[in-house]
Design a protein that fits this description.
Helix content: 25-40%
Shape: elongated
Number of helices: 10
Radius of gyration: 43 Å
CATH superfamily of the domain at 99-218: Band 7 domain
Largest sheet: 5 strands, antiparallel
CATH topology of the domain at 99-218: Tetrahydropterin Synthase, Chain A
Order of helices and strands: HEEEEEEHEEEEHEHHEHHHHH
Structural class: alpha+beta
Strand content: 15-25%
Strand order of the largest sheet: 5-4-7-2-11
Length: 330
């Protein structure tokens, strides 16, 4: 029974139950007569014999190994399964999909900054994309006797060189150390090119690299918040105008602290405008009245009465009644 059991066929496949695996070595030691190979979308199957690549199969499908695969193996194309002669070859499944990986600096990177003799420690976070670029190079450099190789292994290699790359690309072109986010795109492009060149030596390409954010020390963040607040207070008139425009755009409704702050600012603005108008009242509000009082009813500057009787036009003499018609003047 044990002798016959060895003749049972194999199913050579990779289910990809674990995410983030770049290559996976099929655990079987022997491929028996009648075995089948299943290649799923996003996979390549590589046959190795004595450590050498014998054939790479990229089309997904279900294959009979004896009739569909062996004729295309370099040194095994003449292999014939016997009654007890299984094929002793290795099968390596390669994930051909592009993989997205999150990264973050392991330690703070100390950058030279004006006014900070000891430098400014920052951290950075983002993502990168990787995929297998060259099968032969990856198998030669990485496969060895590994059962699998994952994105975590790639991540370890990248993070090991990331501190130096960040320092190099940030220090170029005199960048503002306190506003690195403005240059995040160009810094990331430079790092991507360097990482891709280095990782291709292992058969892996870096097809994208992004910096989502730079993280400054708490003291620096407090200084930035204080500077922003002072800038806003220094231009309170513009802030009030923007708040009013925003309120009108929302139908004049606000809630909570934002609404209270807006009401306070509007009250202050209206009150200041009223004070300004009162201060200018002597030069503006009385001018139309002076024009009206220029006729016979005009009052004296000190309020002593009209210069002419408004009833008969007789010049006033300063008495309470007109000397001509008796009209009350005061």
């Amino acid at each position: 029974m044990g002798f016959l059991k060895n003749q049972f066929s194999n199913l050579v496949e990779w289910n990809e139950s674990d995410e983030g695996v770049i290559f996976y070595r099929w655990p079987g030691q022997e491929i028996k007569k009648g075995s089948r190979l299943i290649i799923r979308p996003g996979q390549d199957a590589v046959f190795l014999y004595n450590g050498r690549v014998e054939g790479i199969f990229e089309e997904d499908g279900d294959y009979d190994i004896e009739s569909d695969i062996i004729p295309f193996l370099t040194t095994l194309r003449s292999f014939r399964f016997g009654f007890n002669t299984p094929l002793r070859a290795e099968v390596l499944f390669i994930n051909t999909k592009e993989l997205l990986v999150k990264w973050g600096t392991r330690n703070a990177v100390n950058l030279q900054a004006p006014g900070l003799p000891g430098g400014m420690p920052i951290r950075a976070f983002g993502t990168f994309n990787c995929r297998v670029a060259e099968h032969d190079v990856m198998i030669e450099k990485l496969a060895g006797i590994r059962q699998r190789y994952t994105v975590e292994d790639v991540k370890e290699r990248i993070i090991a060189s990331l501190d130096q790359l960040l320092m190099s690309w940030i220090s170029k072109e005199g960048r503002d150390m306190f506003n690195l986010q403005a240059d995040a795109g160009s810094i990331a492009k430079g790092i991507e090119a360097d990482l891709d060149r280095d990782m291709r030596g292992l058969g892996i390409g870096i097809s994208g690299f992004t910096i989502e954010s730079f993280s400054y020390p708490e003291e620096i963040r407090r200084m930035q918040e204080k500077a922003a607040a002072q800038s806003m207070i220094g231009d309170m008139g513009r802030y009030t105008q923007m708040a009013a425009a925003d309120s009108m755009a929302k139908g004049g409704h606000g809630t909570g602290m934002a609404s209270d702050m807006f009401g306070l600012q509007m009250g202050m603005a209206i009150g200041q405008q009223m004070v300004n108008q009162m201060n200018l009242g002597g030069n503006t509000a009385t001018q139309p009245q002076q024009g009206v009082q220029a006729g016979p009813d005009a009052q004296t500057a000190g309020g002593a009465g009209p210069k002419f009787c408004p009833n008969c036009g007789t010049p006033a003499t300063g008495s309470k009644f007109c000397g001509n018609c008796g009209y009350k003047l005061l």
